[in-house]
Specification:
The protein has about 325 residues and is α/β, with parallel strands linked by helices. The protein contains 11 helices and 13 strands. The structure holds adenosine-5'-triphosphate and magnesium ion (MG).
């Protein structure tokens, strides 16, 4: 059942569902669509757009984006994964072709016209986000990367408002999803800035090893600057300890350091080192398709419980 309702501060909104304890409302401003849910305690944004960011390479960003996305979809949440990394690891992890070969070089076997449309065409204004979405299952959609994305930073250099291109694109489909996750490259350049400007929160995976916090201060400063200039709603949704080995003294010491530094911001769930998580991408599978009984599947399910129930539900009005 739906109908129109007027909200003093929000303009006119279309009332979509009416449940016992919570009412969801789709707010339509020109070009911007948000879903708000009302509970006895207040209202919050239903769609959560989360950027998975750390400029340090190989810390677990892509593994986290893929498997959190898959777990959210398993729980029945409509989820969109966006690969904004020119390396295209999320895309290849899920069996999509980005035009690169195994070395990350342009594939000799592929014609240019065979490379599927990607986030690159969206950033260049050649396609809408909707036109480049592909479905993996009824609840899980993907926007893939392509090797052309590596040129985007330079090519968009002179474009006014270039930091907000992704945000505008996401706003056009936002209301169709419960969660939108963006897998960022290991750099704080224009692509990561676009992700931070579009997101409500950031998950920062950190590897449980020596120098885990290296560069984290710079990342927090960048988040702060994005908050001031482009996106006042942006918050750190959580710091996630990845590839943890509790049997090693170093692993325990690093995890203590991370918790001392970030306190409450660290997710209780820790992603343990698990070989199945490293093997699944070669099969084009998520951990839930590759090995449901692995500790990797267990950990990512626990993380998603935390994300859905806990700190990821920031309220916008009390
Ligand atoms: N918990 C884990 N246990 C074992 N291997 C893991 C785990 N998490 C990730 N890996 C593996 O570690 C490598 C780096 O992980 P991943 O690609 O997710 O990092 P990333 O931060 O996205 O890297 P990049 O910065 O290059 O994008 C991959 O080979 C991945 O399969
Ligand atoms: Mg990655």
């Amino acid at each position: 059942m739906g109908g129109e309702a007027a909200f003093p501060l929000l303009g006119r909104a279309f009332c979509r569902t009416s449940l016992n304890t919570r009412e969801e409302v789709l707010v339509n401003w020109p070009g911007i669509h948000y879903k708000l849910a009302f509970t006895s305690k207040g209202a919050y944004l239903v769609t959560r757009c989360i950027a998975v960011v750390n400029q340090k390479g190989g810390v677990g960003k892509t593994t986290t984006t893929v498997n959190v996305g898959a777990a959210l979809a398993e729980k029945g949440m409509r989820t969109l994964l966006i690969d904004i990394d020119p390396q295209g690891n999320l895309s290849t992890h899920l069996g999509l072709n980005t035009g690169s070969d195994e070395l990350g070089e342009p594939s000799q076997e592929m014609e240019e016209t065979e490379i599927p449309p990607s986030i690159y065409e969206v950033l260049k204004g050649q396609k809408t986000l909707r036109e480049v979405i592909s479905s993996r299952s009824s609840k899980l959609d993907i926007v893939q990367s392509s090797l052309y994305l590596s040129a985007a930073d330079l090519e968009l250099g002179g474009v006014v408002g270039r930091e907000l291109i992704l945000k505008r694109a996401i706003d056009s489909v936002r209301a169709e999803y419960d969660y939108i996750l963006i897998d960022c490259p290991p750099a704080l350049g224009l692509l990561s800035l676009n992700a931070l400007a579009a997101a409500e929160s950031v998950i920062v995976p950190v590897q449980s090893e020596y120098l885990a916090l290296h560069g984290v201060r710079q990342l927090l400063d960048t988040i702060d600057q994005v908050r001031q200039v482009y996106n006042a709603e942006l918050s750190v949704g959580g710091v996630l300890i990845c590839m943890h080995d509790n049997r090693k003294r170093l692993g325990r010491a690093v995890s203590d350091t991370i918790r001392n530094y970030f306190g409450e911001l660290v997710f209780s769930t820790v992603i343990r080192q698990n070989v199945a998580l490293a093997e699944a991408p070669a099969q084009g599978q998520t951990i839930f398709e590759y090995s449901t009984r692995s500790t990797g599947a267990e950990d990512y399910l626990a993380l998603v419980e935390e994300i859905v129930d806990g700190k990821e539900k920031s309220r916008i009005c009390a």
